[in-house]
Structures are given as structure tokens and as C-alpha cells.
Amino acid sequence: MKYILCILAIMGLLAHNISAQSVSLDDAEIIQPPEFPGGTVALSNYLIKYLKYPAIARKNGVQGTVVTQFIIDTTGQVTDVVAVKKIGSGCDEEAIRVIKSMPKWKPARRPNGQKVAIQYTIPVRFYLADDDEAQTHWYKDIAVKPRSPVGDLAAVTDALRQKVTLTKREKKSIKGKKIPISFAVSPTGAVLQCDANSSIPRPIVDKYCAALKAMGEWTPGQHNNQPVQTVVDLEIPK
């Protein structure tokens, strides 16, 4: 059985980008495909965070796509990771390393609820941006700003206040405080590197960031008519 999700991890110097395309199953009996913890966006963020461009590949200008293939067993464990398409210079080993270090997935299931092992494929693209592109990769004050699936930033704030439920203890810990959230919207619309200042307890930040990512893909900001990675700041009222 094969389940193929095409994800391209595009990296270069300081540049990171990722995109998710359509999925396909060649086993009609599978009703629930495997799922990375947190979904596709979380998988994209995981690859962006942990995938490193090998120094020798960067030095030699090696670019291209490493196609990794592996098994997600009935416990959700990733096993039997191989590179079925290689480009060398340490890129194959790096792609395999990151895939092997993934946390457990939710395993695939049949209609009767039976868990099944399934083969999965992720193509990982290594891309070297030039120095100018790398230095100007992060944007904030641009004319065409990113837009969320629910509307403007005021709508995002309202949606977060409705979706996030805090315990009494958590509410008490931030009483009288506003919650400043900062994150990036990638050129493909993924929410990345969500965080808040250190005065806000981490569990509360995680709740808001999870709700933010669960909204789905944004329309990315643009600079010179090209989608770019943009820093977004918003504040949850006290």
C-alpha cells in the first residue's frame, strides 16, 4: 500500500519555504490516511525547523530533490527510511536523518478501524538562494500584507479568543496582561515560528499558536509582485 504526499522543503542559506500538494491513495480500503501530529502545516514546520543544508553541498553548489520513502507502522512509528532518489553531498543523509527523527504519526486505518502499516513518500528539495535573496528574505512592512483565512488581523484576534479555552489557573496567571503573538507567514501561506514574549506562560502560548495554525493557510504577503516570508504581530486583548 502506498500513500504519497508531495512536500517540497526549499532551503537556502537563511531561506526556508515549503508547500503541500495533493495526496493520493492506491488502496481504496484505507479510509483514514496517516497523519503527522498537528497535520500538514505542523509537518511543514517540522521540516523547516530541523532540516539543515549540508555544508559540503552548499560549498559545491549542489541543489535538487531527494525523494525519501518510509513505512508508517501500526503504532505510528516511522521505519525503513530510504532515499529512492539521491543528489549526494550529504543531502540524502540529511533528508533521511530528519525523516527518521520524526515523532509518531497517527497510523492509517481501514473502515473497520483496523490500523495498518503504509508506505509514505516525501520529496525534499534543497535550494540555494543567492545572498541578496537570503538577506532580504524576512519582510514586515510591505504594501501587500498576508491575509488569514478568516479575514484581517482583527478577525484573527476574535477567532483566537473564541477558539482558545484557558483554565482558571491560566487566566489568573495572565490577569491584566495582553498576549502579544508573533509569527511568520511563509511564501506558501504556512504559519511558522509562532511565539510570544517570555512573560506569557508557555502552555498558554502553545494553545494560541496551535489555534492560529489550525486556521489553515494564509494568503502570503507580496514584495515586487512575488510572495515572500512575512513577519506578523498581533495582540490578544486582556
Largest sheet entry: 5 strands, mixed
**Helix content, binned percent:** 25-40%
Determine Rg (CA atoms, Å): 20 Å
- Structural class per helix/strand content? alpha+beta
The CATH topology of the largest domain: Fusion Protein Consisting Of Minor Coat Protein, Glycine Rich Linker, Tola, And A His Tag, Chain: A, Domain 2
CATH-defined architecture of the largest domain:
2-Layer Sandwich
Sum up the overall morphology in one term: globular
What is the CATH domain class of the largest domain? Alpha Beta
- Termini distance? 50 Å
List the strand order in the largest sheet. Answer: 2-1-7-3-4
Give the strand tally. Answer: 12
Strand content: 25-35%
User: Number of folding domains?
Assistant: 2
Order of helices and strands: EEHHEEHEEEHEHHEEHEE
Q: What's the pLDDT, averaged over the residues? A: 79
Poorly predicted runs: 1-28, 130-136
Number of helices: 7
Describe this structure in words.
With 238 residues, this protein is α+β, with helices and mostly antiparallel strands. It folds into two domains: 2-135, Fusion Protein Consisting Of Minor Coat Protein, Glycine Rich Linker, Tola, And A His Tag, Chain: A, Domain 2 (2-Layer Sandwich); 138-236, 2-Layer Sandwich (Fusion Protein Consisting Of Minor Coat Protein, Glycine Rich Linker, Tola, And A His Tag, Chain: A, Domain 2). The chain has helices spanning 40-50, 55-60, 91-100, 131-135, 153-163, 168-173, 202-214, and strands at 2-12, 15-25, 64-72, 78-85, 108-109, 115-116, 118-126, 138-139, 179-185, 191-196, 221-223, 226-236. The chain has a five-stranded mixed beta sheet with strand order 2-1-7-3-4, with helices on one face.
